[in-house]
């Protein structure tokens, strides 16, 4: 029994799949009775691999733990329909005695389905899972009777520090994902991430495109630890599965005692007959399914000021207040004190975090006095923490009994060690030092950073990967605790920038730091990339002012912030009159555009940017409101563009009602919005309205 999805509008394109392959030249030398092989077999709703059982063949050992032949049996299925949606629960069994419950749910209004799978041990003795998929999608593609040569494409998003969200489109054939002549060999492209930075190397996402039918299938994992996706093929059909990284890939093994059940992280599945962008947008609303009461101010997408790119880890009280006044005048409503507020004498801020005692040098009257002064300026004060780790010069670094170990030794990565978040004493300590400080000092915003990864995992469970999984569950539970104990607090998710921009973490927070690209030319490129992976209303983008910036340079930076949540930084207290005027113009336009940023659809135009550090070409991102009556358009020029005009199409009758640019005004004519940059690395922002507005 396999899971198949396709857009309802494409049902007329479905074809009857062939049952046999009898015309492959590779079979010609066989006796006539052996010149026909099965074209395909059904996939399974779930794949699990038990320790000690016979392993799959097809030369798959070390490549894949998926089953090469059916090894689960259907028991029953229940379909429950209600006004809220549909839940389909399928019960399977895998011998010896493992019950598998596959749950597919759809909520009214959603354009995706959510899938999770549970595995329960019905034996009288323990069993161990080496693989437990969250989902498996089979039958790709249902729009070609055979193996669809040249039609199947794999889409992924590569991600590294300060270079998040690079799109990749690769043919199935380029990845060796084509059927062999006798269908004997397993072909697998297993990829993912091992560690506690889930968006490192790749985002936990995969899409398959049938270019002949114009249909896309996509899956995103809502999980913040080690994960894997697998594109698997042995016959005509391509299959895609994913979930926790398995024993081969992620050092994960999970023991189930008699009667014990394990539930996998959810996967989000969608299909689109339109485009990859449309597919991605169908998956994003999961991240906005809040289980907490947000701060009322969040409804307006307030501008943030973070002092980090000004003080660089030295946020002294007087300097902070000068910046806060300038930030308020520039339109910020939130002021965040970043790393270094805990710096102790003779210890650098990079090495001293973990004790969470405010610096007597920077805050002689205590950090609560600074927070109070920020509030008196009409701003919400925020504070930076790196909750899960401690620096080498902190007292916490020597608390070895409360830190994570691997192979019996304290786990040290670079200059950091990691708290054991499964230890009640650690949770009590963090509750006092983090939640207690935020409450007592009156902070209304917390930036949760995370600047290293556990790697393969830690001691404390039956496998390093399971130890890691428990740590991820624990930090997410701690974020929920912060929200319970501090109602209305605004929470930012940061992990050296964008290493935790995945659905499970993003659903717990108000926004995430898009990247550690603070001042580079690649900022608008990354910001545009991430509109496919996280909602713009949750993508906090740096816009760092420098006193030497000319108008064009300044606008290039600030315009990128219109692609998400605008986060100002830099010495605004030194801004001249022209800079202040531009900041006010941008503030007013951003506030006007906020409803479209919060809710809309985005499309990127322009040539592919191949080199992020030395970008060439241009891009435009058009974000249209749900009623299609207003749009926000953000242009950026890169290298080797000069003053060549670029443009995007506009619906008939639309006009520019407000715009900011550094050169010639934008012009709307003959169904096009045209912008002529004043030179390389320029920008323009336009707010457009239709004839009904």
Descriptive overview:
One of its GO terms (molecular function) is alpha-galactosidase activity. This is Alpha-galactosidase. It comes from Terrimicrobium sacchariphilum. By secondary structure, the protein is α+β, with helices and mostly antiparallel strands. It has three domains: 8-288, Distorted Sandwich (Beta-galactosidase, Chain A, domain 5); 302-513, TIM Barrel (Alpha-Beta Barrel); 604-689, Immunoglobulin-like (Sandwich), CATH 2.60.40.1170. Helix 4 (317-329) packs parallel to helix 5, helix 9 runs parallel beside helix 10 (551-561) and helix 10 (551-561) packs parallel to helix 11 (577-598). The model has no long low-confidence stretch (mean pLDDT 97).
Question: In one word, what is the shape?
Answer: globular
Supply the number of structural domains.
3
Tally of individual helices: 11
Major beta sheet, specifics? 11 strands, antiparallel
* Uncertain residue ranges: none
- Percentage of helical residues? 10-25%
**CATH fold-level label of the largest domain:** Beta-galactosidase, Chain A, domain 5
Please provide the count of β strands. 40
- Summing up helix and strand content along with how strands pair, one would put the structural category as alpha+beta
CATH architecture of the largest domain: Distorted Sandwich
Q: Rg, please? A: 27 Å
Residue-averaged pLDDT: 97
Determine and state the CATH class of the largest domain.
Mainly Beta
Strand content: 25-35%
Distance between the termini: 52 Å
Let me know the CATH homologous superfamily of the largest domain.
alpha-galactosidase from lactobacil brevis
